[in-house]
Amino acid sequence: MTRKDVVLMFVLKKMIFADMRKWKIDFWSKILLIIEEERLFLSEIPDYFLFENMRLEYPNFCRNFKIKENGEVCHLDIPREKFCCLFCACPFFTLDDKRTRMSCGSNKEAGYREGNIWDCSGCSYVHDVGWVRENLSFVEEMMKSKEGEKND
User: How many domains, the chain?
Assistant: First the structure.
């Protein structure tokens, strides 16, 4: 591999990271906007973000709502009626700028690394509404950080 190839690969990784970071920020902004618009109490959030409700109330929320017209959920190992879209931008997924690596901050072993890319497609527990109900602290953190941005 030439020096030019190495530089090009590094630049491409940085672009992917920037896109991933932007997507995650945009996704959480959408989530917080819906919570605010619907005036949801913390305890109501998991059920509001169930797949069926989101598909009906916010059909443009996710591109998969249109792609998967038969109503198939993204992670097939969770029953549709328990599938929660709230953590599509997983709170455990991290982007390490220093090493241009993606990784998982949970102790689960459902994902795997391919090069510097972390593949979470085999992981689904953050989409189970039961898990979401038990882990609302992640939503509280997002709401607090958004409030902090407003007050700056």
Answer: 1
